[in-house]
Amino acid sequence: MKPSDFYGAVQLLREGQLVAFPTETVYGLGGNALDETAAKRIYEAKGRPSDNPLIVHISDMKDLEVLTKEVSSIGRQLAEKFWPGPLTLIFKKSDEVPYGTTGGLETVAIRMPSDPIANMLIRETGSYIAAPSANSSGRPSTTKAEHVIEDLSGKIAMIIDGGAADIGLESTIVDVSGDVPVILRPGFITKEDLLSVIGEIDYDPAILKRSIDNNMVAKAPGMKYKHYAPKGDLIIYEGEMDAVIMAINKAADEHRRTKEKIGIIATDETITKYNYGVVKSIGTRSNEKTIAAHLFSILREFDELDVNFIFSESFQDNNLGQAIMNRLLKASGYHIINV
Ligand code: TXA
Ligand code: MG
Questions:
Q1: Distance from the CA of 19 to the center of ligand 2, in angstroms?
Q2: Ligand 1 nearest-atom number relative to CA 111
Q3: pLDDT of 222 strictly over 90
Q4: Whose C-alpha lies nearest to ligand 1, atom 13?
């Protein structure tokens, strides 16, 4: 990227325009967080319901005092340990933060990204940047500039290309506005990581669900919407590895006659075991980071191929695997088959 582009982006943000930029988690669709018109533009560009609040990105610990009414000691401990990094914290908002940014809520989500481009962009703009993931509402989050172009080209002023996002899944969200902190969205920073700093933490029950339950309302408004959905029907197979492979092969084979296009999400360990369909490895089970990094891009690759069905292996539901399974389950509409 030429320096002139970078300062062009700074200028556009100052004018209330939208700029997509890389972060260590996924690409963000940025606008000035204190400008309600910019927030409106963000909702429009994404096609996102405006009751779904935006995360405010900061570059300095001092920014917390400006944007929040109070910072609990737990909130401060977590910020000091994990910022800059893939953790979003929810605080009671100050009057500085417009309701247009928080979707009408009295709380505000704040994150200090570690990506150097993101960090410098916030710093140079001299404000705070509201940024949801830079995808069209409902589609997989974007982990490369090409994905952002697919979804938002023509709808925003600029896209900064910073290469592939390191982590590939959105930040962990923890609500620290109440007495006991609550994980609202699992991410790269795991429950175990958080418990190394603080004594107790709860899960929003909606995270742990394994099937659609319409009575369960997620506390992060965005978690209630259908999400990350690929165009084809995604079905997850869970069980002993050999049984999973057999079941996926059987399901794929049943579509051989109908000539429907099949995609299979395998791993480095299993990729040679499938007989029919487009088989892609999402990464290696010996390093879950590789799986997290490719999850959204593999869903988009299958969209490009216009597959009718995607059959996926499942992953261990702990540590980083919890965030991976959370996104995969949502992408499938909780379509999981136990074998
Ligand atoms: O990694 C990330 O968090 C990325 C990068 C760009 O920073 N951003 C991101 O934003 O994932 P978004 O808008 O796609 O997801 C933000 C989530 C939504 O589910 C939203 O409902 C929730 O955070 N959220 C935002 N403010 C909230 C609040 N005050 N209370 C509860 N949930 C909130
Ligand atoms: Mg999002």
A1: 16
A2: 7
A3: no
A4: 132
pLDDT in tens, 121-144: 999 999 999 999 999 999 999 999
Ligand nearest to the backbone CA of 140 = 2
- 226 burial via Cβ count (<10 Å: 0-12, 13-18, 19+): exposed
pTM: 0.96
Ligand 1 atom nearest the C-alpha of 221 is 21
Listing DSSP states for 81-127 in one string gives HH-SSSEEEEEEE-TTS-HHHHTT-SEEEEE----HHHHHHHHHHTS
CA of 185 to the centre of ligand 1 (A): 9
pLDDT at 212 over 80: no
* Residue 223 Cβ contacting ligand 1 at under 6 Å: yes
The atom number, within ligand 1, closest to the CA of 105 reads 29
Residues 6+ apart with CB under 8 A from 80: 61
Cβ(67) – ligand 1 distance below 6 Å: no
Nearest C-alpha neighbor of 296 from the set 179, 108, 165: 165
Residue range 276-313, pLDDT digits in tens: 999 999 999 999 999 999 999 999 999 999 999 999 99
| Half-sphere exposure in the Cβ direction for 179 (13 Å, CA) | 0
Q: Decide if 110 contacts 264 (C-beta within 8 A).
A: no
Q: How high is the pLDDT of residue 256?
A: 85
